[in-house]
Design brief:
By secondary structure, the protein is α/β, with parallel strands linked by helices. Helices cover 31% and strands 25% of the residues. Strands 3-2-4-5-6-7-8-1-15-14-13-12-9-10-11 form a 15-stranded mixed β-sheet, sandwiched between helices. Strands 16, 19, 20, 21, 22, 23, 24, 25, 26, 27, 28 and 29 form a twelve-stranded antiparallel β-sheet that branches. Helix 6 runs antiparallel to helix 15, helix 12 packs parallel to helix 13 and helix 18 runs antiparallel to helix 20.
């Protein structure tokens, strides 16, 4: 349910109808198990099919984070806190806390040093203007830092909305977040604070959030405190390293993997321990390692080791019949919840057995052991038993992890600890048990969440940043071992459920196919580079990433967008508004929003031609309110290669005179080196002509004024769709007092006329008006629309009481394709009928 739908779902029945419209119930099956290792064959149903290797032609994207000095010429905006602002400094037990408090006081602010023992009981002021968390100490200090942030978060957000607020974390590693050379004497745990700060930056856009890392060798404390204070009041970047050499940012360098001439890190029979179980991602990785090196694979997981199933269960495969059998065995004493948990255990056990058999088919030896990696004693006993049975451990892959996604203010201490401990304490337990082992390979499964931050994943970001910095330690301590911490993007499997996939897709983050990710790891272990990186970032094909200190996947890095131009929304500045009045108020046409976003992307990325949009959404319409004039801003990012196009992220935001800001639209503009032709695909059956003429349509159904009355003749309209001839746009000067260009990149009149045709169709077929909300894609195949107009053919592919989705094509008079909309989505609401009627003309001052 998207924001634009909320006002339309007024009853429980409305909600049920809306949720049910795309439902396609299926009864999933899981593989039956025989526990016979003769041939490993299983029924090719639900689970078995899901585990088949995935092949893709597009390569994964590989980046290496590197420190880069911030040039003195870079001008950064300052954060202005209110006079006498209250700023808290978390006491880390060093003299830096007191020194920083003195510097803050000297700037006219009110500092307060907060001891760890005060965190749970201290009274939080209604508005807290700043919080600085200093990092020293171990895991308990990290958890205390989160606890203080959790409690102070609401006050910081209130202050940020009113008059500005800051949140800063300070670690003391090497002045570059461990990316220069992290001494083994330096505790890597405070690296977690950077993950916390980067997550807060996503969740709290009104608060200036930043992670600072100070070179541990830099003294005295007063000098360091002064440098921290300078960063405290400067916006961006979200990670800044500090040393005597000056401030440092972290950049992402695109780096192709070099495998030619690489050596086999592991040999046949080498014992490799893999935490994370025998399911999902780690199982696929184990399979690839087995195929490449023929080691002895030991899989560690929390699930109990599989046992032979009773005959009454072994023959069943469908979820429904398994649950029915489980319930019948309980004689009515098992609740649906208990039966569901029993089914989950059956499914997990079968998946473990199947994956073990798949690995065995490679010729490698494989075993599964059940152990909680958070328990050091249990891990020690497990490792000792492994070495007694199979020999010394030569490789370790730490892939164990759990999720408990919550926003900072909603996450409990227990949830934070569960996520953090599985990653961090699990790694410590394994490394302690393998302290004297002569490891050839040590691979830690970190996450792109640690590098970029992510809404709702504060614990996961913090824990994985500790893994990154621990890897830097281990690389120094084990010079003959290949040590690698991989900041994986989301995989197409494992923790990424079907429900999460559309979310990553909408953010421009491609999923890593299971097989491709596993094969990449093998290639990375064979890396023949002389200076092999310890930390790498791996993203799925099609991910949109910008390089540099502000780089991050699209959707997780709004700072990567730069303001290109601003426009004041008034009828005097935009005469076209007088022709687009809904409910008595001028509204910026969506077609003009598209044009401005296209112009912003083209201006930010010169040398490329406008080729369309991808996943563009209208978040909130731009409505003219006389009491509060609005200035809209077009923001665009640098374009990156995406298949045959270059994709540039774009936003349209607005700001009112009182300082209130709002997000209006967001998506990607597609640019290209040249235009390419495509053929039309939409064919409508013979449809009846619409019974009214165009003047009657504009008087009775549509609300558009003369400047936007582009429909010239409706050919036909019926249940499958609608077709018509429409006019193309006049020069921009007729619509805009001071246009940025003398010609259009798209054609706002033709596009708006297509939207009008969908209003006509919805009114005719469903009895209600509609407005556009989303476009999955728009492609334009020539520089300009023909001056004589175009034919619009719209095929409606999905309808419900509240939404319609259509495909729309624009054809020239010879039938050649000019442009196309894929998945044009409009919201339908009967209340729009009255709103459209209240469309009195708005007077325009003479120019």
């Amino acid at each position: 349910i998207k924001p634009e739908h909320l006002g339309l779902l007024r009853t429980l029945g409305d909600i049920i109808d809306f949720l049910a419209q795309d439902t396609n119930p299926k009864t999933p099956s899981i593989a039956t198990t025989s526990h016979s290792h003769t041939n490993g064959a299983h029924a090719e149903n639900g689970l078995a099919h899901a585990l088949q290797p995935t092949s893709v032609s597009d390569p994964l994207l590989r980046f290496v984070p590197r420190p880069s000095l911030l040039a003195d010429s870079v001008q950064r905006e300052l954060v202005a806190l209110r006079p006498g602002a209250e700023v808290w400094v978390g006491d880390d037990g060093t003299e830096l806390a007191a020194a920083l408090a003195e510097v803050i006081r000297a700037r006219g602010l009110k500092p307060r040093v907060i001891g760890r023992q005060e965190i749970s009981s201290i009274e939080i002021p209604s508005d807290l203007d700043g919080l600085v968390l200093l990092g020293s100490g171990g895991d308990d200090a990290v958890k205390d830092s989160f606890r203080l942030l959790h409690r102070a978060g609401p006050a910081l957000r209130r202050a940020g909305k009113k008059h500005g607020a800051v949140f800063i974390t300070v670690s003391r590693l090497d002045g570059a977040f461990g990316l220069r050379r992290l001494s083994i004497e330096v505790d890597a745990t405070p690296g977690a604070l950077a993950g916390i700060a980067k997550t807060a930056a996503h969740e709290w856009p009104d608060v200036n959030c930043k992670a600072i890392d100070v070179d541990r060798t830099w003294v005295p404390a007063q000098e360091v405190a002064g440098a921290i204070a300078e960063e405290l009041f400067a916006r961006g970047p979200v990670e800044v390293g500090l040393s005597k050499d000056g401030p440092t940012a972290i950049e992402l360098a695109s780096s192709a993997l070099t495998t030619g001439g690489g050596i086999a890190v592991l040999e046949r029979g080498d014992v490799v321990v893999i935490s994370g179980g025998a399911r999902g991602v780690t199982a696929e990785v184990a399979l690839a390692l087995a195929e490449a090196f023929q080691p002895t694979v030991v899989l560690l997981g929390r699930s109990p080791a599989p046992e032979p199933e009773p005959q009454w269960l072994a023959s069943l495969s469908a979820e429904a019949e398994i649950k029915k059998a489980l319930a019948s065995r309980a004689n009515g004493h098992a609740s649906p919840q208990v039966v569901g948990e029993q089914f989950r255990l059956v499914a997990a056990s079968r998946e473990i057995v199947q994956n073990v058999e798949r690995i065995q088919q490679t010729g490698a030896r494989v075993v599964y052991r059940s152990v909680d990696v958070r328990d050091p004693a249990a891990v020690r006993r497990c490792v000792d038993a492994i070495e007694n049975e199979f020999g010394p451990v030569r490789g370790l892959v730490h892939g164990a992890g759990v999720l408990a996604d919550r926003r900072i203010e909603d996450q409990s201490d227990e949830q934070f600890g569960q996520v953090y401990d599985t990653k961090v304490l699990g790694l410590r337990s394994l490394l302690a048990a393998l302290h004297d082992a002569d490891l050839k390979a040590l691979v830690l499964f970190s996450s792109s969440t640690a590098r970029f931050g992510r809404t709702g994943q504060v614990a996961y970001a913090a824990a994985n940043e500790v893994l990154n910095k621990t890897a830097q330690h281990e690389a120094i301590a084990r010079p003959s071992c290949r040590v690698l911490s991989i900041n994986w993007g989301p995989w197409d499997g494992g923790m990424v459920t079907t429900a999460l996939k559309p979310l990553f897709h909408s953010e421009g983050i491609g999923l890593i196919p299971l097989r491709s990710g596993a094969e990449y790891l093998v290639d990375e272990l064979r890396n023949s580079e002389a200076d092999r990186p310890v930390e790498v970032v791996i993203l799925g094909p099609g991910s949109t990433v910008e390089l540099g200190s502000k780089g991050a996947p699209r959707g997780t890095a709004t700072p990567s967008l730069a303001a290109v131009f601003e426009r004041e929304v008034t009828v005097e500045a935009l005469p076209i508004l007088s022709a687009h009045v809904i409910d008595g108020r001028p509204v910026l046409p969506m077609a003009l929003t598209l044009e401005w976003l296209a112009q912003g992307a083209a201006q930010r990325n010169p040398g490329l031609v406008f080729a369309g949009f991808s996943e563009l959404r209208l978040l909130k319409g731009v409505v003219l309110r006389a009491a509060q004039p609005e200035v809209v801003r077009v923001l665009a990012g640098k374009a990156v290669r995406k298949g045959n196009y270059y994709a540039a992220p774009v936003d349209l935001t607005g700001k009112f005179a009182d300082g209130h800001e709002v997000a209006h639209a967001r998506g990607e503009v597609l640019l290209a080196e040249r235009y390419t032709a495509e053929n039309a695909t939409i064919e409508l059956p013979h449809l009846p002509r619409l019974g009214t003429n165009i003047d009657e349509v504009y008087r009775g159904t549509l609300f558009h004024g003369p400047m936007l009355q582009g429909i010239e003749r409706i050919e036909a309209s019926g249940e499958p769709g609608i077709a018509a001839f429409v006019a193309t746009s006049p020069p921009p000067l007729e619509w805009i007092t001071r246009p940025l260009r003398n010609s259009w990149l798209s054609d706002p009149l033709a596009i708006d006329s297509a939207f009008q045709l969908l209003i006509v169709w919805c009114a005719e077929q469903l009895g209600a008006g509609s407005l556009p909300t989303r476009f999955a894609g728009y492609r334009q195949f020539r520089k300009e629309f023909p001056a004589e107009g175009v034919r619009v053919v719209a095929r409606v592919v999905q309808t419900s009481p509240h939404k319609a989705i259509a495909e729309i094509e624009f054809l020239d008079h010879q039938g050649a394709l000019v442009a196309r909309f894929d998945e044009y989505e409009c919201v339908i609401d009967a209340s729009l009928n009255d709103a459209f009627r209240r469309n009195q003309a708005i007077p325009i001052a003479p120019r």
